[in-house]
């Protein structure tokens, strides 16, 4: 791990909070031996908070938890386009950010972050159904409704509820590395990684059997990253032409097949660096990147670091 210190996570439950949105960060960052996180659920004040979808939350902490936290999650809530959160909540979010906490919104929680002004001039996303409403209410925010999440450093936003898992895994990857993120994904029975640039939804429907074949093809490729994987090979595995495969792949994932393969290979190399003492040359071969020089090139381009620096930063998380 890059650091042994405990990461403090506050989940801010607002009136009308969506149950799944609240549960995602609470479960992903649940306190356990392999996860150096402590999670506190909080509200505008301690006590009962009326949630959405027929559920309520009895939170133990008030806004003092935001002064304690390193990361503050704001789950989505009902009717976000009607009223801003209470002024005390907005002020507490601004204060938390000012002292260095990261603020992360799930779904319509982006409206609460936007109310602070911290998203002005920055890219952000929210649930596609509310994207235009957020753009109209906060015109200084650069809304991108076609992505799963946006990382602007100290402020992060995600789309609908399921993409909150992607955002949490993205944060976990940055904090603890790929091995820890993949371990958490397996525990959640979730996809190990979907990039923030992936589309929220497929703009043109993909026939179900074809969609299943594409999913199976990606899973097949992930087990063979050390082998040659070309567009023709992937298309043949999916039983479609390369042109059809490429077009549908971009529609479904937001990236080209070979971009996806390259990112998967870099991720495999990252995990091997974290979990083994193999040489950079051996890892490059195992991950399908050819040579150590090629691995270093892609690490610098994609991650902005070297394999050696990455290995020094991250160690295996049991």
Break the fold down into its secondary structure elements and pairings:
Blueprint: E1 7-12, H1 19-28, E2 37-42, E3 47-50, E4 56-59, H2 64-68, E5 71-74, H3 87-98, E6 102-105, H4 109-115, E7 123-124, H5 131-137, E8 142-143, E9 149-151, E10 155-158, H6 161-176, H7 178-188, H8 208-222, H9 231-238, H10 242-253, H11 257-275, H12 280-286, H13 292-303, H14 307-313
Parallel strand pairs: 1-2, 1-5, 5-6, 6-10, 7-8
Antiparallel strand pairs: 3-4, 9-10
Helix pairs in contact: 1-6, 6-7, 9-10, 12-13
Description:
This protein is of the alpha/beta class and 318 residues long. The protein is built from 14 helices and ten strands. The protein has helices spanning 19-28, 64-68, 87-98, 109-115, 131-137, 161-176, 178-188, 208-222, 231-238, 242-253, 257-275, 280-286, 292-303, 307-313, and strands spanning 7-12, 37-42, 47-50, 56-59, 71-74, 102-105, 123-124, 142-143, 149-151, 155-158. The chain has a six-stranded mixed beta sheet, with helices on both faces. A two-stranded antiparallel sheet has the order 3-4. The chain has a two-stranded parallel ribbon with strand order 7-8. Helix 1 (19-28) runs parallel beside helix 6 (161-176), helix 6 (161-176) runs antiparallel to helix 7 (178-188) and helix 12 (280-286) crosses helix 13. The termini are close together.
Sum up the structure in keywords:
318 residues; alpha/beta; 6-stranded mixed sheet; two-stranded antiparallel ribbon; 10 strands; 47% helix; 12% strand
